[in-house]
């Protein structure tokens, strides 16, 4: 077995690989960019090498530097993880040329599957069913337009060299085709250096079901169950599970055998995933093959009891597959939720910030957390915004869902917006519990997945007041005289009862509270209502009784920013002071950047008349494009940035003179 490997990746997947390698007695070499100098994967590795500036194009995508470091460190092999260089044919070839084992498939297999159009031709020859569409080399707009008409609508434009939802657009009608094609090509070229597209019929109620395959160097192949990855946003997976609910044993077997046939058709070696679209009538069609370990591989590990990274290392060393097909068994049900720094309420816009508070559920045989961050780390614009993967297992799907709901309630993050509340609503939604799964699940059930807060506003304000006051008391110096009223940690005043004011800002609203503090309780006045409150704060855990209702929350108070966590929900407020001088970041007729990022295109010029909803600026952040639209009808008066400029969240991009009737 290898004695030392280099991991050409970062974040949770680098940490995941290190864990298995160390268990097998293998030393690990990490690489890191300037942004990752203090990252968790660097601390976990046996040694680490600086590789370049923060942008991935200057660090984690520098194949030449990675090869140089691998040779310098004495590593015998390179594990690419997923993303970055994991499916780069040139990198695999460079490893082979430098006598380094690439822990993945041969470069020829990556090349065969790297082009979605070429892959479909291979699959068609191998007898694997395909979705109708166009996968040809002629990429002229006229040809693509004609093929789109042949395919019919709705259709899917997909980057030939892509993945992860980038360079992908659903087109509902021919009138939208040209704009969608231009956007998909531009995004694909920026992400993959290749603007070529393929066209597929877009199935209206499909499920995304994929098969984990493994092949050794002797040509033997097995499939290790299937995963359902239907719940997606922006064509990117959000929640995955294994096994896929509702599939017959005959379908499972047929899909598994088709997946192995697909892998063997390209002389595959190592871990791979064959993705299928599964239709309501039970038919399935080859979509693509990912020639690497998948983000969602832990759910397969949980139901099979196998360590897929260990399998990768053994196969790369030349050992046969650990199991034959008849020996592969599954037990129970597993779910994985991807915890992202993003704002679901703003169309899942990526978020950046500091993880000033991070508390994760306790790990056990039922709960697993794969992460690459620790409290205090920054989520930057340079890399994917995934914070962690939360994986749960139990005997049945219902029990596993209950585990997931509970674990999400115990996952608490402050300092950056996350999708935890959304994931909690998703896992607990009745249609999900009943396995009514399609790739349009989120759009079909938006009302269920974006619910109102579970905390009544007044009750939340009372809890916030209790948290703030109890934390203040815990930090006060106690008098040495236990009988002195001046040593009491409350608002005692001689000959009077003093109701201290407390202002809490929630969104744009400022709430004036008055708190009368006694030895063992508070009276909190909110508007015309009065609440009797007893509260006890233990570190970040507040136990409270409000008018006889016992309720407990966790919280984090930092620089007057308070976040309360309650059953997967959050309540955010600011301990308000007038001296803060809160100001609007942008006026009524202006456009502000919703995130840190780069300007890809400015689609207006000074003097243009624009209409509400018209796309004016295209921004790129975390490798995804986002359209910034006009808030109202009017005329563009100023443009503050140009194509290629980097902008910060809140920066004014364009000024618009709003029409008078709009302004009124």
Q: What does the model show?
A:
The chain folds into 5 domains: 4-103, Rossmann fold (3-Layer(aba) Sandwich); 132-201, ATP-grasp fold, A domain (Dna Ligase, domain 1, 2-Layer Sandwich); 207-450, D-amino Acid Aminotransferase, Chain A, domain 1; 457-477 and 489-575, Glycoprotein, Type 4 Pilin, CATH 3.30.700.30; 592-658, Beta Barrel (OB fold (Dihydrolipoamide Acetyltransferase, E2P)). With 664 residues, it is α+β, with helices and mostly antiparallel strands. Residues 491-496 and 578-588 have low confidence and may be disordered. It is 26% helix and 33% strand. It has an 8-stranded antiparallel β-sheet with strand order 14-13-10-11-12-15-22-20, sandwiched between helices. Strands 24-25-26-27-28-29-30-31 form an 8-stranded antiparallel β-barrel.
What's the structural blueprint in terms of helices and strands?
Elements lengths: L3 E4 L3 H13 L3 E7 L6 H5 L2 E6 L10 H11 L3 E3 L9 H9 L3 E2 L4 H8 L1 H11 L6 E2 L6 H11 L3 E5 L8 E4 L5 H16 L4 E5 L5 E9 L5 E13 L2 E7 L6 H16 L5 E9 L5 E7 L6 H8 L3 H10 L15 E8 L1 E2 L5 E2 L2 E2 L2 E3 L7 E5 L6 E2 L6 E9 L2 H13 L2 E3 L5 H9 L1 H4 L7 H4 L1 H4 L7 H19 L23 E8 L2 E9 L4 E5 L2 E10 L2 E6 L2 E10 L2 E6 L2 E7 L14 E3 L4 E6 L6 E2 L4 E7 L2 E6 L4 E6 L6 E2 L4 E7 L1 H4 L1
Parallel strand pairs: 1-2, 1-4, 2-3, 4-5
Antiparallel strand pairs: 6-9, 7-8, 7-9, 10-11, 10-13, 11-12, 12-15, 13-14, 15-22, 16-17, 18-21, 19-23, 20-22, 24-25, 24-31, 25-26, 26-27, 27-28, 28-29, 29-30, 30-31, 32-39, 33-35, 33-38, 34-37, 35-36, 37-39
């Amino acid at each position: 077995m290898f004695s030392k490997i280099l991991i050409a990746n970062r974040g949770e997947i680098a940490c995941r690989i290190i864990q298995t390698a160390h268990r097998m007695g293998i030393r690990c070499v990490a690489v890191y960019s300037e942004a990752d100098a203090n990252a968790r994967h660097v601390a976990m590795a046996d040694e680490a090498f600086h590789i370049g500036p923060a942008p991935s194009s200057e660090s984690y995508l520098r194949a030449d530097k990675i090869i140089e470091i691998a040779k310098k460190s004495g590593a015998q092999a390179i594990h690419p993880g997923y993303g970055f260089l994991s499916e780069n044919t040139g990198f695999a070839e460079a490893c082979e040329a430098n006598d380094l084992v690439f822990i993945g498939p041969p470069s020829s297999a990556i090349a065969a599957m790297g082009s979605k159009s070429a892959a479909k031709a291979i699959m068609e020859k191998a007898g694997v069913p395909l979705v109708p569409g166009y996968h040809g080399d002629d990429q002229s707009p006229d040809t693509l337009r004609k093929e789109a008409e042949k395919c019919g609508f709705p259709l899917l434009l997909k980057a030939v060299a892509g993945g992860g939802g980038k360079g992908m657009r659903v087109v509902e009608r021919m009138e939208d085709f040209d704009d969608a094609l231009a956007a998909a090509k531009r995004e694909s070229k920026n992400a993959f250096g290749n603007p070529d597209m393929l066209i597929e019929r877009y199935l209206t109620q499909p499920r995304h079901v994929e098969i984990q395959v493994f092949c050794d160097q002797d040509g033997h192949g097995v499939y290790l169950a299937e995963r359902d990855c239907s719940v997606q946003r922006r064509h990117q997976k959000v929640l995955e599970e294994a096994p896929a609910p509702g599939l017959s044993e005959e379908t499972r077997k047929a899909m598994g055998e088709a997946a192995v046939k697909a892998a063997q058709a390209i002389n595959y070696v190592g871990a791979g995933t064959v993705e299928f679209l599964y239709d309501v009538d039970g038919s399935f069609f080859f979509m693509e093959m990912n020639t690497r370990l998948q983000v969602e591989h832990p759910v397969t590990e949980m139901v099979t009891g196998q360590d897929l990274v260990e399998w990768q290392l053994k196969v790369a060393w030349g050992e046969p597959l650990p199991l034959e097909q008849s020996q592969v068994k599954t037990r129970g049900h597993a779910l994985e939720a991807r915890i992202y720094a993003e704002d679901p309420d703003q169309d899942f816009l990526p978020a950046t910030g500091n993880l000033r508070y991070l508390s994760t559920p306790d790990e056990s045989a039922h709960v697993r957390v794969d992460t690459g961050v620790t409290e205090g780390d920054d989520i930057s614009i340079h890399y994917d915004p995934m914070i962690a993967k939360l994986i749960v297992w139990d005997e049945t799907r219902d029990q596993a869902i209950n585990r997931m709901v509970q674990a999400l309630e115990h996952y608490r993050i402050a300092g950056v917006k996350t999708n935890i509340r959304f994931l909690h609503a998703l896992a607990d939604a009745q249609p999900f519990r009943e396995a009514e799964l399609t790739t349009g699940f989120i759009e079909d059930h938006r009302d269920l997945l974006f619910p109102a807060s579970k905390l009544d506003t007044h009750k939340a304000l009372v809890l916030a007041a209790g948290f703030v006051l109890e934390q203040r008391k815990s930090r006060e110096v106690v008098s040495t005289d236990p009988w002195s009223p001046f040593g009491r940690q409350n608002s005692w005043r001689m000959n009077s009862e003093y109701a201290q004011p407390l202002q809490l800002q929630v969104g744009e609203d400022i709430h004036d509270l008055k708190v009368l503090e006694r030895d063992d309780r508070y009276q909190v006045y909110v508007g015309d209502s009065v609440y009797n409150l007893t509260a006890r704060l233990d570190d970040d855990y507040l136990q409270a009784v409000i008018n006889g209702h016992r309720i407990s929350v966790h919280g984090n108070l930092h620089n007057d920013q308070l976040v309360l966590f309650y059953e997967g929900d959050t309540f955010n407020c600011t301990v308000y002071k007038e001296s803060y001088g809160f100001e609007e970041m942008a006026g009524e007729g202006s456009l502000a950047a919703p995130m840190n990022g780069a300007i890809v295109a400015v689609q207006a010029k000074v003097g243009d008349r624009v209409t509400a909803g018209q796309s004016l600026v295209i921004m790129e952040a975390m490798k995804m494009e986002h359209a910034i639209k006009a808030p109202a009808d009017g005329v563009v008066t100023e443009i503050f940035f140009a194509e290629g400029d980097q902008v910060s969240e809140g920066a004014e991009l364009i000024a618009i003179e709003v029409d008078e009737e709009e302004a009124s």
